[in-house]
Amino acid sequence: MGYLTTHVLDTAQGRPGEGIRIEVYRLMDGERTRVTEVVTNDDGRCDGPILEGEAFAAGEYELVFHAGDYLRAQGVAADEPRFLDVIPLRFGVADASQHYHVPLLLSPYGYSTYRGS
User: Fold this and answer.
1) Residue from 10, 15, 14, 8 nearest 71 by CA
2) What is the pTM of this model?
3) Minimal CA–CA distance to 35: which of 44, 47, 43, 27?
4) Residue 82 near residue 98, CB atoms below 8 Å
5) How far apart are CA 39 and CA 54, in angstroms?
């Protein structure tokens, strides 16, 4: 059975991104539907899979990371509006029987992602 996970690493401070709110959307037929919301724990991960079982199907998804709130809470000084505030990551799931791990490497002025394991 496949499932979706994430992990946020604060690369500027060299630690997990704790307390980051992530909204999860499914994209179908031109519609964007909110599926759930999670918050990262002290290891920058969610306490369980974001989606699994019947809730995790082939198709397109979007994870929306509320990075600006996290950076403000960390006391990271920046001009307002922030260069990075809300980070949407859209990705496709071709085979919902697999594990899709979509991490976010974050700093105040940049981010990257990849399909992890």
Assistant:
1) 10
2) 0.95
3) 27
4) no
5) 22
φ, ψ for residue 71 (rounded to 5)? Answer: -65, -40
Q: Please provide residue 23's backbone torsions phi and psi, each rounded to the nearest 5 degrees.
A: -95, 145
Which residue in this structure is represented by tokens 């809730």?
55
Q: How far is CA 44 from CA 30, 59, 94, 106, in A?
A: 31, 25, 26, 11
Strands 59-66 and 99-101, sheet pairing: unpaired
Report the first-to-last Cα separation within the chain, whole angstroms: 15
pLDDT, one tens digit per residue, over 12-27 is 999 999 999 999 999 9
pLDDT for 20-73, tens place per residue? 999 999 999 999 999 999 999 999 999 999 999 999 999 999 999 999 999 999
Mark 97-112 as b/e (b = at least 16 C-beta within 10 Å).
eeebebbbbbbbeebe
